[in-house]
Queue: 2 jobs
Job 1
Amino acid sequence: MDHAPQPGPGGRLYVHLADGIYAERVMVTENRPRTTLLGNAKDPSKVVMTGAQNAQSAGGTFFTATVHVQAPGFEADGITFANTAGNTGQAVAIAVRSDRAVFKHCRFLGDQDTLFADFGRQYYTDSYITGGVDFIFGNAAAVFDKVEIHEQRPAYLTAQSRTSNDQTTGYVITHSSVTASDLGGKSFYLGRPWRAFARVVVMETSLPEQLAPQGWSPWHPGEIPTHAFYAEYNNTGPGASPATRVSWSHQLSAEEAQQFTPANFLRGSDDWNPIAAAAALP
């Protein structure tokens, strides 16, 4: 990436990746804005960027990422981002700190802390994310639209980390499918608050029977989060059970849910259209 040409003002750098397994760490820095990585949109399993660092081997969670994106306007289509460290603690497949980021036809594979979605507005569509513990975490404003999110263990999908009610960040999972492995009769949760004002909304999404009836969990057993905002709207499947959810979660009305559509939640002051941006990719 250090030797890639700089796009002109308003231009874009396209990097085409041939089918293969790329066992290396990749850093897309702020010096490479508007970078698009193009893999195999028909079969992202054929283009794999992979590593196996965990927090112990790398010296901390935030040094484990196989791919680290700092560049604004980053896009990826048809790529698998993987961390194969397994159930060995924190091990990030990709860290995304990019405003107006788009991921389409991508796979995110790991266990604990698979996807660090931490800064800026991010849109994920037609993709697959799997992990075990807190495997979508951070403080981005991120929408997961038409995505399959697969839980491997009786743990937690999200660990969002909004720190103030004034922040416009949070995670929205919409028109998606949450699935789970055989958990041996145990349950998992949609999320727990990594920081006090964590915000996650799940709407119009299929939920499996392995989801705990309570839906959401405090960070520590017995706590009652007073500032976290966890909400659902019009979900389906055997795990959709509004009557059994924790008292500190919310069931949204159709009108309330409108603010969390991709177009509304990610619009920002510059009127960004994430759906159009994704449609422009191959």
Job 2
Amino acid sequence: MAQIELRLPENAEGDFFVDSSCIDCDACRQIAPASFRDHGGMSSVFQQPRNPEELERALMALVACPTASIGTVSRRNARAGVEAFPERLTENVYFCGYTSESSFGAWSYLIVRPPEAGGNVLVDSPRFATPLVKRIEQMGGVGLMFLSHRDDIADHAQFAAHFQCPRVMHQGEGAAATGIERVISGMDPLQLNEDLLLIPTPGHTRGHQVLLYRDQALFTGDHLAWSPERQALTGHRNYCWYSWKQQTCSMEKLLAYRFEWILPGHGRMHHAPAKEMHELLERCVARMKQE
């Protein structure tokens, strides 16, 4: 729970505030950009919510915060924020919210699919929070967990035990030692189901992998994200823990696929027509080769 005595001085006067436990994960700024900003290494409230929509988004940011660094002086009821997750992004793809400090606030997603198609897919792991778990139960549970890499797995073991679902992860991430049920090896793409394609993308880490759903949504882990500042796709060179050369090759490999959404674990998501997305990726690869 955020502590009023630790309230950062950069916060605007009013009910909502961020305290000094903030880890600068960027979740609140993505969820409620009308209220939160980066003031240099931390987030703060630069403008109090001005209408019901901004209030709901601020409450969603409060609920999603991995370190409970967002609070309200009035101890406002956060029910609207709780009930907003999972948040629908497009068709049957949802953002889970409830980010975890153990994955530095990484985002996770839920793909809602009928049982005959294999059931729902949880992409990386959110915080194991009771309201979220109950809501996922109502939406059909979890039939499979896709784990992009070791950084963003958070409470995966609790979700797997609760929903009795197998997890899939690459051996390069120490999957076997983590108790993963389906360990992937090699660098060839793997069709998990008719609508799910696993693509190994080493670079950020040794066994990083991405998931392509219906040639529409690409779940990119920490491999690829959108940069609002550059208005471009980017590969996070400063956070490449294994091999930038490998990550560049992996990025180039994605040019063979069609998709309209980039849904990352860290960084900003982006939606564009497939042709435009392909052009953005081409420019990203060209820059990476020059770096």
